[in-house]
Amino acid sequence: MREQRLGFIATMCADGTPNLSPKGTTKVWDDDHLVFADICSPGTIENLRSNPSIEINVVDPMVRKGYRFKGTARDFDAGDAFEYVMTSLYDESVENARARIHHVVLVLVERALPVVSPAYDGGASEAECERVGSSTGGKCGGRGGVVKEKRGAARELPVRCWMFDVGCWIDPVWP
């Protein structure tokens, strides 16, 4: 978790629909809290003010492992808590932090669970997943691949994805 900064933040909109927003400022605050900065996400802050329930997923795209954190969020835009988080975490690590960060959100983690790719179910090692991720630069080439379906049949699938080599993500037959 300390090596990955990109967290996918899930909140609930007033109309009951989900909102998912990536945050490149997600950090561990202490044993019970995570924190992230609001740089340009007024919808996330608005959602948290009406419903403080939150889920944060942080996944290492190379090894296809990470964590999902469920909890309760509280946002700060001024005062001692805001100043302490800014001074401790963001003033030196975020360019023009004071001009760009509008709020910091402190999340009390009530539940943490691992996220593990189904590729591991097929016997892939962490090194194999990392090798495939590294060979694509963590980006999908948009190509198809041979994958085993749950029932055991192998077939060629056309694959389009935005970040992962899906062949590794969905239980591949390794070359």
Q: How would you characterize this protein structure?
A:
The strands form two sheets. A seven-stranded antiparallel beta sheet has the order 2-1-5-6-7-4-3, sandwiched between helices. A two-stranded antiparallel ribbon has the order 8-9. The model is unreliable at 137-175 (pLDDT under 50). The chain has helices spanning 42-50, 79-90, 97-100, 126-135, 166-169, and strands at 7-12, 18-23, 27-30, 33-38, 53-60, 65-76, 103-116, 145-148, 154-157. The protein is built from five helices and nine strands. A hairpin with a 2-residue loop joins strand 3 (27-30) and strand 4 (33-38). It has two domains: 7-116, Electron Transport, Fmn-binding Protein, Chain A (Pnp Oxidase, Chain A, Roll), CATH 2.30.110; 118-169, no CATH class. The chain has 175 residues and is an alpha+beta fold. It is globular and about 50 Å long.
Descriptive terms for the model:
175 residues, 2 domains, two-stranded antiparallel ribbon, 5 helices, globular
Task: Present the secondary structure layout.
Layout: E1 7-12, E2 18-23, E3 27-30, E4 33-38, H1 42-50, E5 53-60, E6 65-76, H2 79-90, H3 97-100, E7 103-116, H4 126-135, E8 145-148, E9 154-157, H5 166-169
Antiparallel strand pairs: 1-2, 1-5, 3-4, 4-7, 5-6, 6-7, 8-9
